[in-house]
Amino acid sequence: GEGLGMRSQPQGEPVVKTCFEIVVYKVKGHAAASSAREAARAVIASYPGFRTWQALTSTDDADSFADLVTWDDVSYAKAAGEAFQKDARLQPFVAEIGQIMSMGHYS
Predict the structure, then answer these.
(1) Residues of the chain falling short of pLDDT 70
(2) What's the whole-model pTM score?
(3) DSSP string spanning the chain?
């Protein structure tokens, strides 16, 4: 029999696992960064494979942000990461980021 939680996949089709991208970063100024992040969210939402974006702010430091972005799978997350760096529409947001503390993909 099949193991718990396992679904059978048709032969030849890869198993697609939802990918959670977690980015923790410091911004140069809360107000400007928040507004730039909202604008960036609309752009990222148009990327292939995008599902959701939770924009979080530290309860201890208003200039410490965390984003939890959900993608259809890790290949979409990685492609978005490449596009992010080249997308001129995201430059105002990128300019507000002081330091990326951590970034990773999880499933």
Answers:
(1) 1-14
(2) 0.83
(3) -PPTT-----TTPPPP--EEEEEEEEES-HHHHHHHHHHHHHHHTTSTTEEEEEEEE-SS-TTEEEEEEEESSHHHHHHHHHHHHH-GGGHHHHHHEEEEEEEEEE-
